[in-house]
Specification:
- This protein is about 40% helix and about 20% strand.
- By secondary structure, it is α/β, with parallel strands linked by helices.
- It has a domain at about 375-455: Arc Repressor Mutant, subunit A.
- Strands 1, 4, 5, 6, 7, 8, 9, 10, 11 and 12 form a ten-stranded mixed β-sheet that branches. The chain has a three-stranded antiparallel β-sheet with strand order 13-14-15. Strands 16-18-17 form a three-stranded antiparallel β-sheet.
- The chain binds iron/sulfur cluster (SF4).
- The site of iron/sulfur cluster (SF4) has 11 residues, from loops.
Length: about 450
Amino acid sequence: MGHPMANNGAESSQLGLYIHIPFCRSKCRYCDFNSFAGLSRLIPAYLEAVRKEMVAWSALSARGGLPSVARDAKKLRLNTIYLGGGTPTLLGGEAIAALLSACRASFQVEPDAEITVEANPGTIDVAQLRSMLVAGANRLSIGVQSFNPNLLPLLGRNHTRQDVVGAYRAARKAGFDNVSLDLMYGIPTETLEDWEKDLEQAVELEPDHLSLYGLSVEQGTALWAEIDGGRLASPDPDLAADMYIRADEHLSQHGYDHYEISNWARPGRRCRHNLLYWRNLPYIGVGAGAHSSFCSVRLANVRDPAEYIARLTPALPVWGETRGSRSLDSPTPRGRHTPETPAAPSFARSAVESYLSQQFLAENGLAVVEEIVDIDQPTQMAETAMLNLRLSEGIDEHSFCRRFGADVRQAFGREIEELENLGLLAGQGGAIVTTPRGRLLGNEVFIRILSGRFV
Ligand code: SF4
């Protein structure tokens, strides 16, 4: 049993919704995400399944089965929505609008909610973007990866530099005033000069936000096979570190705040949805392979899109028939509430535990959840510390203590002291932050903090 204060959302009224769209035009050569080319015939059924999953979460919340912190009346309040993938913009403007409207039917979307849609160049035009804006999307995240005509095919990206510029201009023309670009560095054969050119071209476009990721070659991808077969050189980690340093210099010269290890933003343009993850706050994920995290549990949905659809197809009646349905009134193994007699809005860990079994979720239209992991308090503390250290704001010692009833310097005293002595962490006005050198060696810092939990 965890500490009674151990609650992912205990001191926050923030809640985010992630919607996974697993469809892509083609599979990039480095990609090991849960995304698929050639499955577009599944899109209509998939969107209907996602809608049903949202209805099911909403119904569960109405019965008291979710964190009260983000609930208003009987609906969960959302501060952020993120349509990720995959390539959500493959759906087209109308389907994205319908999806957002289904969100509003199931959740209370805050008036100032950040609503991000991920896009790939070549899959958007001004008309589509305008209909997304009208539907409430207010942030666009474009997967650029590179502008370089030699590197784009090596990555298996099916767009050109001109497509990127066209997509960006279309976003601005349509009226998006919050646009982020994703870039990738440390690509085989890429030189420091290549990277500098990519950075310059990205900054020339004046995006509000940039995410820069070092290429990680994942087993099972086409790129991995090529490197493993000796046909392509592995990325050089020292060169990748130089690229990272160069990016930090270049972006800070151009007014971008390095607020997270891989993310830079103009003032006021940090990604609020991703901040929820890094602050270890609650979120619900819907769609194939999506994860949810709240209170002291983490849930994972089945990854295969066809299986995801199949598990939702017979599960729930259409919207409007939810109240009083058989699935909601089914007896549960460890507790039962009807919509007429909602549970008291109390969500200490033990209360959540008593609700969330796979059987209970399945009986409530959520048979897509195939994994439930109980996160004990020491693990929550280590994960929160580790995630917070990704952010420039670091671990706020006071907030940490309020949330967990424990002093972070006591909980991880030995690890923090060691990392401070190595110049990787530093105390800064009531917070513990990662130093510039610590950011370069981020993984070592995080592993050391986690080891405070596991050794
Ligand atoms: S577009 Fe994104 S999700 Fe789709 S295959 Fe490429 S990297 Fe993967």
